[in-house]
Specification:
Blueprint (H helix, E strand, L loop, with lengths): L8 H11 L19 H7 L13 H4 L2 H18 L2 H9 L7 H7 L3 H13 L10 H13 L9 H20 L16 H22 L5 H13 L17 H7 L6 H4 L5 H25 L36 H7 L2 H12 L7 H23 L8 H23 L7 H16 L9 H5 L16 H14 L3 H23 L3 H28 L6 H18 L4 H40 L2
Length: 607
Amino acid sequence: MDRDQSLSQREFSSFATRQNSVSSQRRWYDIFARCTKLQFLVYGMAHHRQDRETPWLPPEYESVRPLMDDFTRLHQLMNSNRKDRPFSICHSIGVKSSLNSSLTRALLPTRTVCNVLVGAYIKTFESVLRILHVPSFMAEYERFWEAIPSESAVNEEEEVLACKILLIVSLGACICVGSQGSTDVDELPSNFFGRASSWIAHAQHWVAQKMVTGLLADIDLAQISCLLALTKHTQHSYGLVCHPWYYDLSRLGIWLGLHREPRISFPEMPVGEAEIRRRLWATMLELSLLVCFDKGLPAALTPDSYNCEAPSSIADEDIELGLVAQCLTPSTVLGLLTRTHRIRIQILHLINAPCVSKAYDESHQLATKLNAACCANLDEVRAFSKPEPSEFQVTLLEMFTRPFVLALHAQFAEEPSNKSAYYSRRMRMEISSLLLLPFSTLPVSSTSAQHPISVDTGSTGGEKRTSTGEQAILAALRIHGHGHFALVQRQATASLCLDLVSELEENEFPTLESASRNRLRDALRGAVDIFTRRMKVTEGACSTHELVFFTSAKAYIGALQRKCTPGEAYKAITEAARRALASCCAEMERRSNDCTRWKMFEGLFGL
């Protein structure tokens, strides 16, 4: 290893020790230090400075240093600016302790726009995670708009409904930014994502007050808590206090008794109410497992902590009769997800509990079992016709389960001395490609990034969406999603980058694997495009580090496939890094100027 081209192993170990003395403080991109030609990015992002007498950057990389310094400065400035901005927005509107119809209507857009956003939520998220009884909610929703606005004291039912509407509309805004053909719906610009933060803040504040006074402890609490938890996967929460149940919805479900099977514990309970409780428990457990996975926590319960059965595939209109449908219903996907709950609880315990031995045999056994269940679930849902499953349903079924398989193999794929490392690496590439390939052909125009989906509120759930509509929904989720949706994209893309580099550097089977590598490179190209659009739509608030690392890694992979010389590879990497850094700096500079103007506005008007 040449001194002028990379860090020595001793220097890197010393740097890693200083930067990551506490494992929880490790940056996600530190894994790129495994790739010799990308180590300079890890050092640069950490704002590390080596002794000038012992340069660690080759000459080709020195031209990137000024941009990396600007990137670090702007990123730190944005972090300090955006922490207080949601509070400023909420303060300028005025967060109230009550949610009467007059206040709620003042917060919300027009009824036409709300209809589109509510319809978008019901056709997407509600078709996977069952939180509402849709006919009942829609009847209440219509009464909300038909009633005369009132600023007088309100009853709890009106406040509960207002809270649900605020959260549902904010969730719909994540995947529905407007229709190009309707003037009313064109009111949905990208700034609705900022307004959604204020809607969520009002809902959070109201729920917190009700919980302190003990006035909200029933099914409404479970539904609102699920909606709040789901917003963490669709909206940034800088400056917003996390809902107290966000990290442990399963405990809330146990407190409400939802973990008990109604048929056994409450034999006199009506069939419809029992089914709603099963749906809510399955949804709360699913969201709880996703949070534990994202935060690196063991599950808060064991596989034997509940006996509530999986929800049945019953249409909402037939819930009182308990008639199980033989076709796809909005509850079908949630029923499939519940089949893997117990094994995913075991996996979370294995990979995150500090005192558990990370033995390969047990990890391999669990990974094989879960992967088989994922394949069976996918085959089952794909077999439905009239109606066919939407790509949104299929995608979330995969995104909620496959990453657990990825996590089990990740801990062994990076151990060169481990005889099982090759298999784990191949499995990690397989899972990463499954998570990324459906998005390698998403629409790439700038128009799509700003207006990714048009929802026809008159269509029924049984109608098959057009190919363009399906792609637009998934593009919107990938571009505007946060939480688990953003984490899975980042993990899968980072794994694919590193594993492709390892495969190409070893190049053991060039003839056999050339076609599959090209396909994987297409998946990587699509992922980089998504991160580019995420960065631009948020004006540099999200995905800046991801864009720089993944763009540079893609350039290196391309150089390896073209069999470039080391000098040509260095040039390709630095040019890609320079373009990505310049693009990120331009967006962050623009957003920083906007924040400065916002603070001046606050000072002028005393907000």
